[in-house]
What we know:
Elements: H1 3-16, H2 24-31, H3 35-46, H4 50-68, H5 73-79, H6 85-96, H7 100-105, E1 122-124, E2 127-129, E3 133-137, E4 140-144, E5 147-150, H8 157-168, E6 181-187, E7 195-204, E8 215-219, E9 222-231, H9 240-254, E10 260-262, E11 266-272, E12 281-291
Antiparallel strand pairs: 1-2, 2-9, 3-9, 4-7, 4-8, 5-7, 6-7, 6-11, 9-12, 10-12, 11-12
Helix pairs in contact: 1-2, 5-6
Amino acid sequence: MDVKETIASCIRYVEDNLYKKFVLDDIAGYCGMSKYHLHRIFKSLTGETLMDYVLSRKLSSSISELKDTQKRIIDVAMDYGFDYEQSYIRAFRKKFGLTPLKIRSEPVSISIQEKINIDDIMSVNNSVVYKPSFMFKQKFYLAGVKHKIMSKSGDKVANYYGRDFFYHHRQRIINPVDPLVYFGYTDWSDNKNGCIYYMPSIQVCDLDHIPQGMEGVVVPAHKYVVFRFVGFFRPDEINGRQVGRLLVHMYSKWIFNSGYKFADTFRFEYIDSKLSKDNYCELDIYQPIIDASRG
Length: 295
């Protein structure tokens, strides 16, 4: 399944039917995906539910008619599939903090929802990644098995180490924060010598109980840019090299062109295995960043 094309079809359906009343089942039927998966992918990708996006697009589009025509508010409401004028007014006030009448009568400025630009969505295999989010995380601790991986190694080396740790070794850690959340910690400080250090790990409460054969890492407090890959794949099917190439593109588009730079020589993958089922997975990649203007 081409997840990006499915999302594109979803967006097209919404735009083609702004003046009609429709529900999630209608969009899912048009896209050929279960409404459960469509809802889940869209929300994970954009941070809002698909039907919230639909409502935002209807309300935002209606502003043009409020400003540029003499239509009655009830007629604008009916044009956009609302059953009652008051339903439209309540939704409008909740979204924008003012009534449709004020749009007509006062010189106000509001933030509107434009159509999602499908070119902002990048794809890799059966997954997609959209605009990043930004997050601050306090210092925390990881425990895992550290491996040196040469750049000439195959694409699946890190996958193998990750599977081996998650299924055969993480159970030996006695003080996990959440044993079902996987961290793939990558230290690329020695990248100039053709290698990285990859540590499949889980978060721990402290570094006082590191099992034999494992190592502990203190992850310092940082601001992060977070890229979320969403789609139909198993975590152990992730192709590290393909993801790496896509990250180079995303870094260029969303970090370097936005006034940021790398704050440290590591990044980590975050996978909550409780969400990974039915061949569905959400993979978050955290990269520490700072403002480029800082030294």
